[in-house]
Amino acid sequence: MGRQREFDVEQALEAALTMFWRKGYEGTSYTDLTQAIGVERPALYSAFGNKEALFRQALERYYAHYLAFFPAALELPTSREVAAHILYNTAELNTRDPERAGCLAIHGVLAGSDDAEPVRRALVEARAAAQATLQERFERAKREGDLPSDAKCDALAAYVCAVCHGMAVQAKAGFSRDVLEAVADQALATWPGSGRSSGR
User: Fold this and answer.
1) Nearest to residue 104, comparing CAs of 119, 118, 84?
2) I need a labelling partner for 171 at 20 to 30 A (CA). Which of 12, 91, 107, 149 fits?
3) Positive or negative: CA dihedral 181, 185, 188, 190
């Protein structure tokens, strides 16, 4: 009782995040986590709770430390710049580190057992919330005249998210950043009401 932890919680969360990023939620065992963090199970439970609780904390860290470009994109002046910032940063993040290719929020639980259902639902809801936020930004662009009056903002938001999700799958399969950026170029080539500047 009262004994100090013998590890840094932030470093431990980063190690757990990396393991989940590499192997997914169900593919990551308690042995993987204890070895990555360098502690025994009791210390892991004491600091983070069970595996699901640890994954949720790692996911929060992922959003805060690795997806900060998404809220930053929403502040850009045009819808095309918003989309470009998200797409090119997604390409960069997904290919930055071979040990952490792809996207934790996509590969965390692509499919899983009933035990993993709460985690899967949490990821689905987080992706839906991000898409809804993006749609709201495009609706604002439409009101401001940046997007044409007949633009389908729900479809545009779904499109950007679908391209990002596809990039994550391709990155996990070994596609390079150059290839993913070419995908982003293509996705932006016919952006409604836009010029042809890169917007990167």
Assistant:
1) 119
2) 12
3) negative
What is the C-alpha to C-alpha distance for residues 104 and 100, in angstroms, rounded to an integer?
Answer: 8
3-state helix, strand, coil in the chain (%, to 5): 70, 0, 30
Q: Exposed, middle or buried, 142 (CB in 10 Å: 0-12/13-18/19+)?
A: buried
For the CA atoms of 13, 19, 20, 21, what is the dihedral angle to 10 degrees? 100
The tens digit of pLDDT for each residue in 101-151 reads: 888 877 766 655 667 788 888 888 889 999 999 999 999 999 999 999 999
Distance CA 105, CA 67 (A): 10
**pTM attached to this predicted model:** 0.86
First to last CA, the chain: 53
| Mean pLDDT score of the chain | 88
